[in-house]
Amino acid sequence: MLGERGISGVSLRGIGAAAGQKNNSAVAYHFHGKVGLMNAIVAELHDFLAPRFDALFSELESRSDGMLTMYEVALAIAAPLFALYLSKPRGESALKTLAKFLHERPEAIDETYWGTLQDLVTRAIRLVLQVRPRTPVDQASLHVTHALKSTTDGLATLHNWPIAASRHDPELMFQLLLIHADFLAGGLSADEASRPAIDIAYWKESIVS
């Protein structure tokens, strides 16, 4: 429910009813309110994702210069989120909930978890800079943040895509991961120097009403 409606769109009573609880106070009692429930969910997400990101980043961090590609950096950013989506029994719901939390960033969630996320982003930025040392740090940060968000949001809305049936087929999902990494690697590798010459004023005007 949190993944579909967001934090403000659900009540503990509604969550309890959806879970088949006859006692309307059961969820509030067990989790000590909505804040406790949110932190319990985030703890599960953390316990699933953090070790997977750490293992993949650690492998890439151990590579010597010239042995690391941006494509593998892109795969390391996306693969844990694909793994969450494919996990049983409620991976799709877990991914949608993560997307909602990243959009709304509830203040009540334990700051430890946001700190872990920031540490992962920092490690990903270092990997990007290992491959492309000339990339400005702020630009690498923007690219990495966008890569994480676009992967999370894309998977959260996969059921609306024409290829929605692929989410039940691990082999097709792996092919989707590879295709998505193509997209991410292009963005992570981009910098101002590599862009073709364009009319800056014209394109800037296109987004200003």
Which properties best describe this structure?
mainly alpha, 209 residues, globular
Short overview:
68% of the residues lie in helices and 0% in strands. By secondary structure, the protein is mainly α.
Overview of the molecule:
By secondary structure, the protein is an all-alpha fold. 68% of the residues lie in helices and 0% in strands. It contains 10 helices and no strands. It has helices at 2-5, 12-18, 26-31, 34-61, 70-86, 91-104, 111-131, 137-156, 170-189, 200-205. Helix 8 runs antiparallel to helix 9 (170-189). The chain is globular. The model has no long low-confidence stretch (mean pLDDT 83).
Cα radius of gyration in angstroms: 19 Å
Note the run of SSEs as H and E: HHHHHHHHHH
Helical fraction: 55-70%
Sketch the major β-sheet. none
**Quaternary state of the chains:** single chain
Number of strands: 0
* Strand content bin: under 5%
Kindly name the structural category: mainly alpha
Count the helices. How many?
Answer: 10
Unreliable segments (pLDDT under 50, ≥5 consecutive)?
none
Shape: globular
Distance between the termini: 36 Å
Mean pLDDT: 83
What is the element layout, followed by pairings?
Blueprint: H1 2-5, H2 12-18, H3 26-31, H4 34-61, H5 70-86, H6 91-104, H7 111-131, H8 137-156, H9 170-189, H10 200-205
Helix pairs in contact: 4-5, 4-7, 5-6, 5-8, 5-9, 6-8, 7-8, 8-9
